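Recall that a protein's primary structure is simply its ordered list of amino acids. Everything else, from secondary elements to tertiary packing, is in principle encoded there. The following example makes that idea concrete.
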Amino acid sequence: MKVTDDRCLHILPKTPLKQPHFSPFSDDDEEVEEMRHVDLQDVLGFARSFMECRVFLSAAELNLFTILTPDPLPAQEVASRIGADTRGLTILLDALSAMGLLDKRGEVYQCSPSASRFLSADVPDSVLPMVLHMAGLWKRWSSLTSIVQGAHVSDQMTASFRDADELRAFIGAMDVIAKHLAPRIVADVHPGPSRALLDVGGASGTYTIAFLQAAPEMKATLFDKPEVIEIARQRLGKAGVLDRVALVPGDFFRDPLPAGHDLVFISAIIHQNSPGENVSLFRNVFQSLNRGGRVVIRDHVMEPDRTLPKEGALFAVNMLVSTAAGRTYTYDEIKACLEQAGFIEIRLLQKGEHMDALVEAFKP
C-alpha cells in the first residue's frame, strides 16, 4: 500500500512561476541559460501561499463541505452544529466564499456544486479523506526546519492512520484519484503477452483491475498488508475480477513475494525507501519473476540535478518529513539499485511530471 502517495501536496502561490531549467554553471557566460527572474510579488506570494491552504484544510477538518452541500445555512446554524465560535466561523466561511469553494447569498452559505462533488463526505467520489490526510501532513511539514537542522523524524510523525475506518477511507480516496490515471499507465506499460501479474503494495487493486481489463487472458496476484487485503477483496469483487486475482497478505521487506510471475508492477513505493531498502525490495521482486520476466516501476523519476519535475522535488520534501530515509530518485539511482538486484536491460520507459514516470527492467 502506498500510504505516502500524496498527490494533493501543492502549497504553491496562486500564480505559479514558470518552471526554470538550469544548465551546469560554466565559466563561459554564454553557456549559462538565463535564470528565472524573481520579483517582489513572487517573494510575497511564496510567503502568503500557506493562507489559502490552511483555510481549506480547516474547512475540511470541520467537515464544512459536507454540512453545506445539501442546503444553504447561516453561520450561526453551522456554528451550533459543530460547536464553533460564530465570529471565527463566519470569517472562515467568508474566506472560503472568496476562494470560490462556497457560494454566499445574503447571510447564508452553501458549498458550490463543483466543490461538493469532491469534498462532501456523502458523494461516491469524495477525496475528503485524502484532504484530511493532507491536513495531517501540515504538522509534519511544520517540523521541516528542525528536521533540516538534524532532528529525527519521530514514530508519531510517520504513523499514517488512527484506525481501520480512516485507513479504508484513505484507500477509497486513493482509488478515486488513481482510477483516472491507471488506464493510461497500463497502456504505457504495454502488458502485451504477460499472463501473470504481481502488483506489489497494490492497495485496493486499482492498477490490478486496469491491467486485467487491458489483458483479458491475464491473472494477477495482489500483495499487501493484511488489513489492506480485505479492502482489496471487496473492491475487486465489485469490479468482477476477483476470480482472476490471488490475494496474498504480507510485508515485502520481511516476507518472500509469491513466485511464478512474468510482470511485476511497483507503483509509488520506492520513494518511501532508502536506496538499500529498494535494493532489498528489488531482490525480492527478482525472485518472484520467471526468467525473462519484467518489472515496471511507477514513481517520480528526477532529472540529474533533482529540480525537475517540480512535483518530484516537492515530494522529496514530503519524504524528508515523513520517513526515515525516503526521497525521490533519479533514473541513474533507480538503475543502480536494479542492477545490484540482478536486473538487466534497464531503461526509462517514459518521463512524467505527476508521479507517472515508468522504469522497466528484465530478469535474465
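The domain at 178-362 is CATH 3.40.50.150 (Rossmann fold). The longest helix spans residues 164-189.
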